[in-house]
């Protein structure tokens, strides 16, 4: 049938991968340094990836193409998660290899551990030390089987929090794993499915949600409650609310 579908100009594409996470159906992957439509049946033709391409290499065209197949997409995304679980650790550079070539920003990485100091001995020059131990951090990019989630104390943090609360690293990230996102602009159903899968897979020790005091941000509190209910997990669960002028309001 003739329908609208994504077209990628390989001459313009530089393989940056920014279009990959914007495609909720997983229809685009970076292969041999170029973004490519891996199957017509995965592309719904809505063009969510269009605005993500800095080179303008992606357009929507109308041509003969296979029908969009939602059930095929679900099977494909399930397989993607399964494939991402097949990781091994390259101890030399702390990079988890073996996952399929998708978005470069989704490559699993162990960033190591910074040298810890007692709080009383932390100087002003230490304020820039990062406590982030892994990559990626976006909820939609973190596979449930990621090694850094196993037996972790997990922080789910709304992505506005670091701008209001500058001491985020020392206060919340030390010896913890972190995932971030936006409860207002991210897809709630996808986030719920991913967080529930993490709870079912990772054997978390605890879950803490950190969000702003603005109403939309409470969506993460509700998301966590629903994910815990759906997974049937009973683990320590805490809410921390950050004020828009900085400081911890609750938690």
From TrEMBL:
It comes from the Bacteria. Gene3D superfamilies: 3.30.70.20. Residues 4-33, 34-63 form the 4Fe-4S ferredoxin-type domain. PANTHER family: IRON-SULFUR CLUSTER PROTEIN, IRON-SULFUR CLUSTER-BINDING PROTEIN-RELATED. This is 4Fe-4S ferredoxin. It comes from Candidatus Schekmanbacteria bacterium RBG_13_48_7.
